[in-house]
Amino acid sequence: MKTIKLSILALMAAVLTVSTSCNKHKHDDENETGTAQVHFEHVWGMSESAFALNTNLVHPMSGDTMNFTKFKYYVSNLKLKKADGTWWVHPESYFLVDAADAASTTLSLGTLPVGEYTEMEYTLGVDSTRNVSGAQSGALATTNNMFWSWNTGYIMLKAEGTSPQSSTGNFAFHLGGFTGANNVVTTKNVVFGAENLVISKGNTSEVHLKCNPAKLFHADPLSAGTSVMMPGAKAKQMATNFYGSYVFEHVHN
Amino acid sequence: MKYSYLIIAVLFLYACNKNKQKDTFELSYPDYFPTPVYNFENNELTKDKFELGRRLFYDGILSSDNSISCGTCHSQVHGFADHNVNFSTGVNNLKGTRNSPAITNMIWSPSFMWDGGVNHIEVFSVAPITNPVEMNETMENVINKLNASASYRSAFKKAYGTETITDQLMLRALTSYMAMLVPVDSKYDQFRQGKVSLTTQELQGMQLFEQKCASCHTAPLYTNHSYQNNGIDSVFSDLGRGRITLDEADNGKFKVPSLRNVELTYPYMHDGRYWTLEQVLEHYNSGIKHSTTLAPELANGLPMTSDEKKKIIAFLKTLTDYTIISDFKFAPQ
Known about the structure:
The complex is a heterodimer. By secondary structure, chain A is α+β, with helices and mostly antiparallel strands. Chain A is about 15% helix and about 40% strand. Chain A has three helices and 16 strands. By secondary structure, chain B is mostly helical. Chain B has two domains: about 5-180, Cytochrome Bc1 Complex, Chain D, domain 2 (Orthogonal Bundle); about 185-320, Cytochrome Bc1 Complex, Chain D, domain 2 (Orthogonal Bundle), CATH 1.10.760.10. In chain B, the strands form two sheets. Chain B has a two-stranded antiparallel ribbon with strand order 1-2. Chain B has a two-stranded antiparallel ribbon with strand order 3-4. In chain B, helix 1 (about 45-55) runs antiparallel to helix 6 and helix 1 crosses helix 7. The interface between A and B is medium-sized, with 19 and 27 residues.
């Protein structure tokens, strides 16, 4: 009994200490921020060799030799879930990842409150709202050439290049679509698991993700078609396969 | 008769600063007009934006060789349609495959282009600017050219408070001009407002029009903004709406055009195949071609005697607004 009473006392004392220190922390935390980045790595095929532009890559299923000259896609609406279950929402969260621009494969989320984050949500493509709301800016500016002028909507992914297996010598896949059966916009959720993302004062923490552009051609080789220029069943199939290849790798705290 | 005007106004009113009143700007339309689709959210209408938009509208700088402006194919004296040609001529003397429509009453339109492919007035201009057979330019080049102009930079500064010209601001400025193209001083409008009477022939034409045409060409804008196959083809070289929706049920359908200023905007149909209103009415009277997507209302045609056709045409001519086509405010300055 005595031990139990003592334990209870100790527990109460501990709770008191923790709660005061928590309060204190809380007070400090309000002004304490760190920064976060999300990094995308592009790998090719089952061997996960490095994906690069202007390089001959052989597709592991079709055997098609593909030399990509352009590879770009939109990532949007990043959110991070705090350990207390609330979400930190990145404002104006639109990024164009371009394989030709190494800096663009790292998305900078700017400053956010210090603390532990257990999950991340992000969207591949551009949400329907921004597709129907008129002229946009930043990553969504029409000057980025990722916009269909004649059939309003963002080109959510552009993959272009050359291939000896293409009937025209070239391939060009412009994938998009934000309504109905042709909606390709995909929201992904990452549970960090073993090691959470920890934002600490003055530090930059990183989330590393990986995707595999070979998955675009998981269903069809180039002999089945070398071009997609609008939303539709083929765009949906290619985008679904590719978006399915995004996986969480690790965090750097 | 009562008439009143709704006023969307727009006012940079600083109560204590009377000088600022010169910025006051209004878009007026009759109270029998519906609520506009475009509500100027994020792009409050001002005189500076309108004037900047007008300058852009009439400037060839938007095209790759600086030869073609918006106004080239959307001419004020033709009700902001092209100069009575079936297909417009763009950069390098190339021609398109559809007739340039009148770009008036755009703020009431839920979609743009004959096939409705464009969903917002602010992004509408990207299509003609980047189309190789129209202005053949890239948005990037347009913005670079504008940023290289000190005079444009200062005009953007005046209108939007920044010298850094972006596509977003350029598109919004063009919108500010186009939004004002609202023809509301036709004889029909004056009649609705109790200012004038229609002739017996015009009134009879109006009644016939109500019976035969108004289910699609609905007052007061004289369109219901739907897509219809009006029986001009049974085999579709241009899929129209079907090209956008990829739905076979939309093949051969095109946006029902407004009939305001219809007297001025010939030739008619998406490909400008009919040059007179008589030909158009004769098509509905005797020329309907059947297909699975034909508008059901047209299954048996719209039988009209030659006297009825004359009356309907007399009524259609009451929809012409001579004020807007001669208003200096909308002309290149």
